[in-house]
Amino acid sequence: MSVPLLIACMKLLITATEHRRIVALLARSTVYGGIKEVSMPQFHPAEQLPCETSRNMGPQREDEQITRTCYCIWAPFAFCFIFSSWLATTDLLASPSTADSGTPVRFNQETLFTIQTGLGDFDSASRAAAIEKRLDRLAHAPDSSIPELAVEDQEHTSYIVTPDEVLLVVTEADAKASGHTRQELAETYVSRIRTALVAARPVQPVVPAHLVGVEELISATIASALVIALMVAFRFGFPRLYRLLESWRGTRLRGVSVGGMELLSSDLLTDLLLLLSRTLRTALALAAFFVYIQFVVGLFPWALRLEADLYRTLSAPLEHSQGLRSGLGALFFGLALTLFATGVFLASLKILQQLFPRLTDWIAAWGRTSLPTLKVQRVELLSAEQLTDGLLGILQAVRFLALAFLIYFYASSVLGFFPWTRQLSFELFGHILRPVYVIGGVFADSIPNLIAIVMIVLVTRYLLKLIALFFRGLERGAIRFTGFHQDWAKPTYGIVRFLVIVFAAIACFPYIPGSQSEGFRGISVFLGLLISLGSAAAIGNMIAGVVLTYMRPFQLGDRVKIADTVGDVAEKTLLVTRIRTIKNVDITIPNSLILAAHIVNYSSAALSPPPLILNTTITIGYDTPWRTVHELLKKAASGTRNILSDPEPFVLQTALNDFYVSYEINAYTGAANQMAVTYSELYQNIQDAFNEAGVEIMSPHYSQLRDGNKTAVPDQYLPKQYEVPGLRITPLGKWTNQPNDGSLSRNEAKP
Fold first, then answer.
1. Residue (of 637, 625, 636, 748) closest to 689 by Cα position
2. Closest CA relative to residue 137, chosen from 197, 195, 180, 77
3. What is the pLDDT of residue 541?
4. Residue range 135-142: average pLDDT?
5. How far apart are CA 301 and CA 266, in angstroms?
């Protein structure tokens, strides 16, 4: 950029700063009230700009604030203008000039476009000559109709084709040389070629009016009458609609509010509906006029030339505007679009600044009053305050994302307004649009698979309902199978349900999006390995639980003994079994340990003949007759609760020991769960029975020498003349080989 141009820009900026009062007034009118008709007063140095801040600050501070405001408003535009001017005058990024080397493509003495690059072994002149030959052949084809031109985009090229041949090729080099994208350049070429072909057609002779057919005139008259009737209907119908909408203002058309926060007022909603109705009226009128013109022109062949001339007339301003986009015209055109985009950007920021604080206040008020707590049964997972804080956090994240997206979109749009930075704009848009396209394409491709998954899930659901109905019949006994117990119905249903769900998951697996990728397979193998290594014990317990279910060693409520644990079965699951002891202690035992240990079930014997036998052993000396002991033990057992009288209790003599006899009392009971209480009462009754009979419950041990004392044989076995011998004492010398001193006679008893 030249130094004088920079100096001129700086002078322009200084001049704008000197007139900051006028600029500030325009800025206020633009920001707060929109651009309105403002009379420009004559400011004097002593005058102050009427504003709210001037009430509390002096003229010097007001001037400083106005200066900063002017800098903030005009600095971005000045920088954008200077930077764009530098780009326009820089050789590195300058737009290709029309004076650059290239070969024009001419048709009917008119230049359509210029070929500036070669293609393969063909230079620009060879390409232009070949295109001219194809256009000439296309214009002089026997068929009088204009062929359809289309653009076929490939990865790096765009082909302009007709139904019969390829007319020309547009490459990335052509697009870069022209300052446009490849797609835009191809569409421009198609438009110019089509216009030239229409103009090159031979002029149709004008048919005199008296030779026009009667049918065409009648059709044109009817079409004109219909259009006039439609316009009259619009003239009287839409004003009535406008008046109807105005009458509904504040009555039938009420404001739109969500949770007490008004989003659209009644007046704003009415104005929107009026705007939409007026837009609809204009669109319908234009569409009717367009259809009418096309229909009438198609009735008269001589009007085709008129249509071609009209098309050329209308397309000329568009081609002229496209020409302005190069060089300095493109610079000012981009600056104008940048100014418009900046206004839209600032308005959007203002909307975000006003919308999100209202949403924040509304969510905070709603959370304190109406938001319930999140509970699972009686456990409170999240309170209302925590939910409100979470919603506010999400709202802040949405605000940040909206602001980031707005800035990103604004920057990309501004870069796209200038030819020198348009490619960068396309790249920035591509960073966002490319993932969206990929995700959208994957989702669209996954729709058939998702439908298949939904169908499998529905079939599995109703199949499980049918299976559950069948097993409920087995559990109630409505359906019976030989050898299949009713208590097997529920666990068997669980196993069958698990297998059906596993098969359904296997069937759904190939239809899951991404299931065929290597990453998905690797993660699946890794998770399977973790589950197989970490759940070996759990799987062993599950298998043991299934085996125990069908072995039926115990049922819920049975009194069992598993290893050293005695108690009632409180719960049976696929993994563990819980035992409640007589002390009300719950003991959890893994099913694998139960399967490996011995199981004693007291309740199963108590419920089926012969009943459970409770037994205990006592020892009585030989001096008590065994029949007496038997009678006393049976008497004690018969008087005990929970002891059955049929079958009767019985006594077994289990051992003849050195000093006593072992007696075992055996009694039948049907209350296995009351074993501890039954044993305690049995012991009490045995004590009472033996005490009443005068029999000592003891196991005598003899430490004397049996020499003259009474024998331990019961009395009924002794002869009638039996007398208890006395104790005999013999001197110790006889046993120790010492001389006798004669103090004791030989016949005296020894100790």
1. 636
2. 197
3. 84
4. 75
5. 54
Going by C-alpha positions, the residue among 600, 524, 591, 615 that lies closest to residue 562 is 600
* Residue 373 three-state SS: coil
Q: What is the pLDDT of residues 212-224, one digit of tens each?
A: 567 777 888 888 8
- Return the ∠ at Cα 485 (arms to 482 and 486), rounded to 5°: 120
The Cα–Cα gap between 617 and 611 comes to 20
**Best CA proximity match to 623, nearest among 569, 659, 676:** 659
Tell me if residue 106 falls in helix, strand or coil: strand
Whether 489 shows a pLDDT value over 80: the answer reads yes
Query: Does pLDDT of 652 surpass 90?
Result: yes
Query: Burial, 589: exposed, middle or buried (Cβ in 10 Å; 0-12, 13-18, 19+)?
Result: middle
DSSP class of residue 716 equals G
Residues 343-382 pLDDT 10s: 888 888 888 888 888 888 888 888 777 777 777 767 777 7
DSSP state letter for 566: E
Which tokens in the block code for residue 643?
């002891």
Residue 682 scores a pLDDT above 90 = yes
Cβ 273 vs Cβ 245: under 8 Å: yes
Q: Which two tokens stand for residue 744?
A: 């004791």
**Can you tell me the distance from the alpha carbon of 261 to that of 146, in angstroms, rounded to the nearest whole number?**
60
Taking all residues of the chain, what is their mean pLDDT, rounded to a whole number? 75
Helices (H) and strands (E) in the chain, counts: 20, 17
Please give the C-alpha separations between residue 653 and each of 535, 620, 661, in angstroms, as whole numbers. 54, 11, 7
> 419, exposed or middle or buried, with CB in 10 Å at 0-12, 13-18, 19+?
buried
Question: Is residue 97 pLDDT above 60, yes or no?
Answer: no
Tokens of 352: 């975000």
For the chain, what's the residue count? 751
pLDDT: is 206 or 108 the higher one?
108
